[in-house]
Design brief:
single chain; alpha+beta; Tetrahydropterin Synthase, Chain A; 4-stranded antiparallel sheet; 3-stranded antiparallel sheet; 8 helices; 49% helix; elongated
Length: 285
């Protein structure tokens, strides 16, 4: 091995280290002799630039959460913490903030859609449902909800309105499928709304959607147009049957009253004759 005075152990120089030294030398040559200050304009322009940079840093470091909001701070796209209403700090250019309205009441339509002109258009695929006694109904309803957990609301479900709409439709179908058509059309609406709301909340909690269901409100419940005429005939037949039954019951009660009156009169007559016979027997005795 040939001895080199510059390399006392005969070790060759590291090529990576040599490349770094060369890059450092080239970068030093690019900087003026006066340093970075010479790159900035002199006088008032320099002060304006410095003030602008400071303002930008402050603007990127402070955020304010409104009273009806909840802040969710992201760092490189990953949620790291939440923030209550009021002023807060964040790392500039590294952290970003989302501020959903947690006090706002959101609305999802199921079975129909409201157009831009304010008209309601039925969506048959969602509206047509089968009752427990095998009748078809067209059901339109709305779901109102609020944000319960902002972080879950923003990051656990991709399309929250579509998810709520599908879950609400499935919940309503299950509840209506256990109900009779008369209940769905008349006195059972409140029960259907409450049961659907409970079932829907259970489904959304399983999804960890961060949503609180505020109300489920039936807007329109009626048979579809294709069977409306037949349904009307059935309804009229039921009403006629009920009228006939009521008339028969009234006549039966009237007849029963008449029989009771005649029986009471006959009993009174028998008692009178018995008392008269008793008086005769006592007189003879």
């Amino acid at each position: 091995m040939t001895w080199d005075p510059k390399e006392p152990w005969g070790k060759k120089s590291d090529p990576l280290e040599a490349a770094l030294k060369q890059a450092k030398t080239q970068f030093t040559d690019l900087i003026p002799s006066g340093g970075l200050k010479n790159l900035l304009p002199s006088g008032g322009v320099r002060n304006i630039l410095i003030a602008g940079v400071l303002i930008l840093l402050v603007w990127q470091s402070v955020f304010i959460v409104a009273p009806d909001e909840e802040g969710v701070v992201k760092r490189f796209g990953v949620p790291v913490r939440t923030a209550d209403p009021g002023p807060h700090f964040k790392i500039p250019f590294v952290e970003t903030v989302l501020q959903p309205k947690v006090e706002k009441l959101f609305r999802v339509e199921v079975g129909f859609r409201t157009t831009q002109q304010g008209r309601q258009q039925r969506v048959l695929q969602e509206a047509l449902m089968l009752t427990g006694d095998m009748n078809i109904l067209g059901i339109e309803f709305i779901v109102q909800y609020k944000i319960k957990e902002a972080r879950d609301f923003l990051f656990n479900v991709a399309d929250i309105d579509e998810t709520i709409g599908k879950a609400a439709e499935a919940s309503m179908r299950e509840v209506v499928g256990k109900s009779k058509i008369d209940e769905a059309l008349t006195t059972g609406k409140a029960v259907i709304q409450a049961d659907t709301m409970t079932l829907l909340q259970t489904i959304l909690d399983q999804y960890q959607s961060g949503v609180q269901i505020a109300a489920v409100q039936l807007q329109d419940v009626d048979p579809p147009e294709a069977v409306a005429a037949a349904f009307k005939d059935v309804t009229n037949a039921k009403e006629d049957r009920e009228k006939v039954f009521a008339r028969m019951q009234a006549e039966r009660e009237q007849q029963a009253k008449q029989y009771r009156a005649e029986g009471a009169e006959e009993a009174q007559k028998i008692r009178s004759e018995a008392e008269k016979d008793l008086e005769i027997i006592l007189a003879q005795a």
